[in-house]
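Retro notes, item 3 of 5
We never archived the inputs for the magnesium ion complex last cycle. Fixing that now. Sequence and ligand:
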Amino acid sequence: MKIIRTTENEMQTQAFAGQLAERFGKNAFYALRGDLGAGKTCFVQGLAAAIGIKAAVCSPTFTIANEYLGENGLRLIHVDLYRLSGPAELESIGWDDYLDSGDAMAVEWPERAGGELPERAITVEFRIGGNPDERIITVSSPDDME
Ligand code: ADP
Ligand code: MG
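Structure as it came back at the time:
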């Protein structure tokens, strides 16, 4: 299934993430593709708000993974694989444990994980549109997911 949405500012991108969290549940796995500055981290901020996370979500570029606790014990794992040397390094960040945890996951630069993405991954692709604040966001979910 495919959804295409154009947003005109950060708030709209965050609100769209919140709508997806309602639609796909609060423990979905999101693979976030797109260039630097395309809006991936902004999207994660919207997801976090929908999960009831009060902490400020910023890019985990230097730590690779950040864990946030939301309401009712819900957790969000925010991963940025930009600096990952290769799929072999996933083990050292506890990747498999994260996948097994059943928590929501949002992964920037998922290409760096090689084939290590779960089947349930929802791909969200960000492109910059015709003006600097326009983002074209394409969501592709696995076919067996509503
Ligand atoms: P990424 O994580 O993909 O590198 P960020 O989310 O950190 O990108 O940054 C997105 C940048 O683009 C921010 O500076 C934000 O203010 C800006 N921006 C402008 N328009 C939008 C929009 N429609 N949606 C999201 N971010 C936008
Ligand atoms: Mg980012």
